[in-house]
Amino acid sequence: MSLDLAAVRYRYAGSSSVALGPVDLRVEPGMVVGVAGANESGKTTLCLVAAGMAPGVIGGRIEGSIVVDGVNAATLRPHELAQRCGLLFQRAATQLTHTTATVFEEVAFGPCNLSLAADEVVERVWWALGALGIEALAPREPTRLSGGQGQLVALASVLALRPKYLILDEPTSELDPAGTALVADALVRAARETGAGILLVEHKTDVLARIADEMVVLDRGSVAMRGPVADILGDVRLADLGVEAPAKVRLARDLQAAGADFTAELASALG
Amino acid sequence: MERSPLVPDPGSAASSPGLPRNLGLPEYVTRRPSGFYRTLNPATKLAIAALEVVTVFLVPGWLGPIAVLLVLAVVAAASHTARALAVIGLAASPLVISIMVVNLFILPGAVDPIFRAGPIAPTWSGLWFGLLTSTRLLVFSSAVALAYVTTPVDDLLADMSRRGLGRRGVFVVGAAVQMVPRTIERVGEIMDAQRARGMDTEGRIWRRARAIVPLAAPVVFGALTEVEERTMALEARAFTAPGRQTQLRVPADRSRDRALRWAALLALAGVVVLRLSGRVG
After folding, report:
1. DSSP 8-state class, residue B117
2. Average pLDDT for chain B
3. Yes or no, beta carbons of A130 and B152 under 8 Å apart
4. d(C-alpha B87, C-alpha B76), whole Å
5. Could you tell me the pLDDT band of residue B250, with boundaries at 50, 70 and 90?
6. Which of A93, A216, B89, B91 is deepest in the core (most CB within 10 A)?
């Protein structure tokens, strides 16, 4: 049981250059795989490809295979794939439907699309809100939420479809520190309580250090580094790939450079 | 059937006390409006609005607009929407002013001047025609606005869906209705960004007008680039799944609604027939 990308290469429609690949990647249920990389390294493309949006919705040309729990993703229709691989984008505003009066109804939009019985829809909505600890937002108007709250509602909307895998494309990129902390806490909670496999693209490495089990670093569309998150985030080559190390690591390095031996603290900081 | 890891097993952490639990369908979702007009089915209100609009424009002279205005005044008072309608009426004031000015001074064929001051000669005919046209416009916009302010958008969409309009059609209507507030919100965001970069968007009218040009491009192009992401977001929420969308709340459609709708549609047809036959006008 896993989400597997094997020798995947992808070109956007009308482009002659490869935007992604070759990439081999595996996400298993219960595992959080972090993805980092500089701008234009292919992070968003990886998300679109893994979720079947590319080429399924936006076109383009793909090679290799994407297999979700033994089923070739190319054979699945978008709504079938949405129930296996949930996709969250950077901006909450573009993910909300803007046609619902309350957060409850916003989260119910996906399950309603599946023509489920009303009782099942209601049960899923409460479950998704509860998994993120945001039941209190249920009566609120979706368009009047803060950025962090909006992103959590968007995530709950995806969770309500009960996918086995979550693909999150920089969910905190437009958030301030408070919003980032809010979403990071919710992701920790979601990972713990849902048991879903999570592919988390994130340039804030402090968030990755806290949540991810394994990590890959992309460089010009290909995997440049992969391994346990502590090893990758402590690797000095990270900076050469345009990825900033977590604050704790940078602090420990600065102190080491000043002559203090902080090897143990560095290891501790990375968990 | 295999259980998704996101489906809580009985006895698992996710179904234990203190964690996600089903609280039933909340009242703020099943909310019922109060008052006679607000509790009418959205389709009934649309039928009444259609009758009012047709009456305003097809019944000649002042009879149509005045009759509809009286009805609207009663309904607005009863449904506590008079203030909202007044605000909407004020929003139409630039158009009303331009209609009055144009008709007052340059109504073709008008030869009954109120006074003459050189080339300026407002006419009685222009004054009455301008007043009639302005009244028609205000009554028309009030009729549509009354239906709008007394009908939550999601009620309208739910009712359209219940009547068989496909989910794409329902979503297009909903998105179109919500486009205005969303665009206003976007303009605000872009204005803030432009101000932060030193653009003067306040003060005299010519300054504001000059600021429109650099605002227009980001608003239009931003909306266009948003389309792709919104499309993918809808796909990610199973929007294209087959079958009918589940309805959590369906607006009531009582016998009084059906009776009112039929009466409104018959009256509308009657007005059209009378107008076409030349018995009125």
Report:
1. B
2. 83
3. no
4. 13
5. confident
6. A216
Number of H helices, E strands in chain A: 10, 10
Residue with more model confidence, B18 or A132 = A132
Residues 127-166 of A with CB under 8 A from B: 127-131, 135, 138-139, 143, 154, 157-159, 161-164
Question: Among A31, A20, A83, which residue's Cα sits nearest to residue A228?
Answer: A31
Query: Residue B55 pLDDT > 60, yes or no?
Result: yes
Cβ within 8 Å, pair B235-A82? yes
Residue B17 reports pLDDT greater than 60:
no
* One-letter amino acid for residue B1 of the chain: M
Residue B107 CB-half CA count within 13 A = 21
Are B246 and A115 inside 8 Å of each other by CB? yes
What is the spatial distance between Cα A196 and Cα B93, in angstroms, rounded to a whole number?
A: 57
A174 near B CB under 8 A = no
pLDDT the model gives residue B8: 42
Residue A270 confidence (pLDDT): 58
Question: What pTM, to 2 d.p., does this model score?
Answer: 0.79
pLDDT of B210 above 80:
no
Does B8 sit within 8 Å of A115, measured CB to CB?
no
Q: Which of residues 228-257 of A touch B (CB under 8 A)?
A: none
Judged by average pLDDT, the poorest of B115-124, B154-163, B212-221, B224-233 is B212-221
CATH of the domain at A119: 3.40.50.300
What's residue B11's pLDDT? 37
CB atoms within 10 A of CB A207: 22
Best probe of the B interface among A58, A80, A94, by most B CBs < 10 A, is: A94
Asked if B230 and A110 come within 8 Å (Cβ–Cβ), the reply is no
3-state secondary structure of B67: helix
Closest Cα in chain B to A94:
B230
Domain region containing A20: 3-269
Q: Does A267 touch chain B (CB under 8 A)?
A: no
Pairing of strands A20-27, A197-201: unpaired
DSSP H/E element including A32: strand A32-37
- Statement: residue B7 has pLDDT above 70: no
Q: How far is it, in rounded angstroms, from Cα A253 to Cα A244?
A: 13
> Amino acid identity, residue A181?
A
Ranges of residues in chain A with a pLDDT under 50 are none
**Measured between CB atoms, does A17 come within 8 Å of chain B?**
no
User: How high is the pLDDT of residue B12?
Assistant: 39
Domain count, chain A: 1
CB atoms within 10 A of CB B134: 20
Q: What backbone phi and psi angles, to 5 degrees, belong to B112? A: -120, 75
Neighbours of A228 (CB within 10 A): 14
Which single residue is written with the structure tokens 């990590």?
A215
Write the pLDDT tens digit of every residue in B103-158. 999 888 888 989 988 888 899 999 999 999 999 999 999 999 999 899 988 888 88
Whether A139 sits inside 8 A of B239 (CB atoms) is no
